[in-house]
Design brief:
With 153 residues, the protein is α/β, with parallel strands linked by helices. It is built from 3 helices and 7 strands; from the N terminus they run βααββββαββ. The protein folds into 2 domains: 55 residues, no CATH class; 60 residues, Transcription elongation factor, GreA/GreB, C-terminal domain (Chitinase A, domain 3). Helices cover 32% and strands 22% of the residues.
Length: 153
């Protein structure tokens, strides 16, 4: 019989490599922790559904996600935003005016929470790093251009 018709052990999907974990601290907002819990729940349900359908590839993919989100939950450090609006910090929303005159508003959040099109950026990204610890009225450098922090809330 030809090897083409024999199912090999390498066809097994349960050996998917783990998703890489960030080397940075896993800082999260309260909402970020809730999102981690929700993701974990979704992938557990997907895993159960895949097992019920005997879909080993889908089960392995879901199991991989479960491992990732469990690790992220285990390392999560919930940070409550500071009440001091005089310095930009984790969990705060910052509005600045770019050199070209446009305003930009974003919230500084954890890596898994970041979604720039929705106005959230990771605390480790260059934009967030440029404004962290600065106050309204101060000028910061972003991508080689100056920007002025207008508001922190």
């Amino acid at each position: 019989m030809s090897r083409a018709f024999v199912k090999d052990a390498e066809d097994k999907a349960d050996d998917l490599p783990d998703r890489p974990l960030s080397p940075h601290r896993n800082l999260v907002t309260k909402e970020g922790l809730a999102a981690i819990e929700a993701a974990l729940g979704r992938f557990k349900a997907a895993h159960r559904a895949a097992i019920d359908k005997s879909d080993t590839h889908a089960a392995a993919a879901a199991q991989r996600e479960i491992r990732y989100w469990r690790a992220r939950r285990a390392s999560a450090e919930v940070i409550t935003p500071s009440t001091d609006k005089n310095r930009a910090s984790f969990g705060m929303t910052v509005t600045l005016r770019r050199a070209d005159g446009r305003k930009q508003t974003f919230r500084i959040v954890g890596e898994d929470e970041a979604d720039p099109p929705r106005g959230t950026v990771s605390y480790v990204c260059p934009l967030a790093r440029a404004v962290l610890t600065y106050a309204p009225g101060e000028t910061v450098e972003i991508a080689g251009e100056e920007a002025v922090i207008l508001e922190i809330r």
